[in-house]
Amino acid sequence: MKEKQILDPIQPMETTTRRWKGWIVFFIGLTSLFYMVDRQDAFVLTNSQCAMTSQRPSTVLHSGFPPIDNVTGLTILPGKAAAIAFEPNPAVERLNVMGGESWWDRLFPNRHVHLHSVQVPVLSARNQTISAVVSICSGEGGRLTRRKRFPDMQHCVSTKAVEIETEPGDTFGVLEWEPEVVIVLKKSTRYWLVLESPSVESSFEWVYAEQPSDVTESIPVAIQGENGWQMQLKDTPPPSAIVTVERHS
């Protein structure tokens, strides 16, 4: 009887030890799983590879087409920039595209999309070759403010230098950007499409949209000048721009 009384207290300790070992093994396995998911398809997908599992892109910004005649634009001064705001939140529809994103993005796919393309019409009275830097940036302001007032050039999701050669008879040219890597955009975040003049010697114009509607007139447009960023006047039409994204599951 004495031996039984001595051994009985040891049995709960052994059970507790086995439980702790089980939890340790579980957490190690879970950590390994997250690591494998994060490392899976760690290589960068090209657009042709993404097209195999994607559907038709969705337009999340369309400020209007440029006019055929009497084309004018927003002047971007040498070394300065202009920007137009958009939110990449198309109708929810599931796709299966992976790569270039974290395991958190994959666990919550409906919270983000992938940038597909950017089209911006530009013109220059002096130069046939127009060079610009196109960026997708978040906005300035605190973390609790979702609708940031101005673009934050220090926190850009992606930046691309683009160039176009226009013909003497062309009214304007179109700068196009189709990312070769996966660029993740959060649906709940306001982003800024920023067009910057990289040269300190020349400027160009970002072509205004023709006959803006009530919707496009309300699109925020910011202009960078000598005194920093300022909002464009309400009576001025927005510059023409098209941004498309791809959704996935």
Automatic annotation (TrEMBL):
The chain crosses the membrane at residues 20-37. It comes from Rhizopus azygosporus (Rhizopus microsporus var. azygosporus). Keywords: Membrane, Transmembrane, Transmembrane helix. This is Uncharacterized protein. The lineage of its organism: Eukaryota, Fungi, Fungi incertae sedis, Mucoromycota, Mucoromycotina.
